[in-house]
Amino acid sequence: MENITSDRAPSDALVVFGVSGDLAHKQILPALYAMSKRGTLDVPVIGVAFSSWSLEDLRKRATDAIRKAGGIDDRRALHRLLARFRYVDGDYNDPRTFTALREALGPARRPAHYLAIPPVLFPTVMTGLGASGLARQARVIVEKPFGRDLASARKLNEVARSVFPEDAIFRIDHFLGKEAIMNILYFRFANSFLEPIWNRNYVASVQITLAEDFGVKGRGAFYETAGCLRDVVQNHLFQIVALLAMEPPVHRGYGAVHDEQAAVFKAMRPIRPADLVRGQYVGYRREPHVARTSDVETFCALRLYVDSWRWAGVPWYLRSGKRLAETVAEVVVQLKPPPQRLFDDSGPTFGRPNYLRFRLQPNSAVALAARVKHVGKEFVGVQRELYMLDHQLGEEKPYERLLTAAMAGDGALFTREDAVEAAWAAVDRVLKRHHRAIPYKPGSWGPKEADALIAADGGWLNPVPDAATT
Fold first, then answer.
1. Which neighbouring-strand residues pair with 318?
2. Residue 232 pLDDT exceeds 90
3. How many CB atoms lie within 10 A of CB 423?
4. What contacts 349, CB < 8 A, 6 or more positions away?
5. Distances (CA, A) of 366 to 53, 141, 199, 370, 467
6. Residues 294-334: pLDDT tens digits?
7. For all residues of the chain together, what is the average pLDDT?
8. Nearest 5°: phi and psi at 363?
9. Mean pLDDT of 117-143
């Protein structure tokens, strides 16, 4: 996809609000180091926090973050990065913080403001940027979650649009920065053989799994306010649905791609409580900062329909959860069986029909399952996968890619206002009305009720270690 940037020049400074936080330590600071190594970061970096830090504290924190993220293998790049740092300490509610930020920016006039802060502070900081004049010619990068439901997303969009034009608002979903996710879009529209079968006439169902074998990792307080449906399904998995279900864009510009993605979200049938299974792993309530009577879901499975001409009647099954059997992300596009049972071991009554499988993590792969005949006189065979593993050394990690793109004004990998609101609209009903979370055993694939949800379509195809056969 062509990189179409905005009419404005690249950002001449990067401001990181919440630079003392966990997100900055784990993702942003290592990404800045990677950009420094590649030579794509040549502007001042101003960290802002309310932590009683000094500039030297920020530099020590950055060095520690980079070392823990993978080590320091380029001392010159590290020194270049540390030399670009400036630091502003202050309360986001205090106008003096923004005055100090203006001074720290110096001659920079087109900063990119990264809000790596709790979502409750987004309006405060955006309003402060607007009141201080620091939003003029600037960009704002907003971390997910963008709202908690449809009403809050609309309100946050109103605040953002009152300060910044839409093309200056970069709503991050880091999943969109992953190479394997970008490959879905490329694979779909760079290969002509898919188009004739990529519709309701040949596709029986689509499964998407995003599983993690670990728990909330001390983030119980956050998870109590989010849950799996908000934290993963409404954003990450819906973005995958959009890439798989969208119509071909009319041209390569990212605006055309965003139009088609938004159309998918708008075509999603609102999910009903009967289409949703919520689970909670046994032991979650013993996690720090988790209520002893918590009903927050750590697992979510749902049945979704995209009411478009291409996909009418095709069920999409999505599931995600923590403390599951593996850490893996995978898509299975299940094709319909041959219309006639010409051979004894093929046809609609024998086994699982052909499918296309996208492995998204821990590695990137595409596989097509097809039946092949055994050697001999008998017309019997086995289903095997035609398998392609695509692992490229030196590829950009998501936050490096997204930061580089946002500072250049390239919105291709970010989400748009109408798409965000349409995605929330699809889940809004079940955020308020749903069945209680069902306990499930850690190390399993979630509660058995999730199996019943998809039983009519052959059950879940649980991810297995990569192999050329099934």
1. 208, 302
2. yes
3. 28
4. 341
5. 47, 32, 19, 13, 11
6. 999 999 999 999 999 999 999 999 999 999 999 999 999 99
7. 90
8. -130, 175
9. 95
Q: Which residues of 256-268 are buried (b: 16+ CB within 10 A; e: fewer)?
A: ebbbbbbbbbbbb
List Cβ neighbours of 75 (8 Å cut-off, separation of 6 or more).
none
Q: Cβ atoms within 10 A of the Cβ of 83, count?
A: 11
∠167-171-177 over CA atoms, to 5°?
110
What is the C-alpha separation between 276 and 302, in angstroms, rounded? Answer: 4
CB burial readout 154-169, b (16+ within 10 A) else e: eebbeebeebbeeebb
Q: Reply yes or no on whether the pLDDT at 381 is more than 80.
A: no
Q: Which long-range contacts (CB under 8 A, 24 or more apart) does 58-63 make?
A: 58/19, 58/85, 58/87, 59/85, 61/19, 61/20, 61/25, 61/29, 62/29, 62/32, 62/33
- What is the model's pLDDT at position 352? 74
Q: Which residues contact 468 (CB under 8 A, 6 or more apart)?
A: 384, 385, 387
3-state secondary structure of 46: strand
Q: Give the gyration radius of the chain's Cα atoms.
A: 24
Name the catalytic one among 113, 174, 236, 258: 236
Q: Does 236 qualify as catalytic in the annotation?
A: yes
State the Cα angle at 243 between 452 and 280, rounded to 5°: 35
Residue-wise pLDDT tens digits, 88-107: 999 999 999 999 999 999 99
The type of residue at 163 is: V
Taking CA atoms, 168 is separated from 8, 85, 114, 351, in Å, by 9, 23, 12, 51
Residue burial 362-387, b: 16+ Cβ < 10 Å; e: rest:
eebbbbbbebeeeeeeeeeeebbbeb
Number of helices (H) and strands (E), helices first, in the chain?
Answer: 15, 15
216, 322 contact by CB (below 8 A):
yes
Among 111-115, 121-125, 208-212, 373-377, the least confident range: 373-377
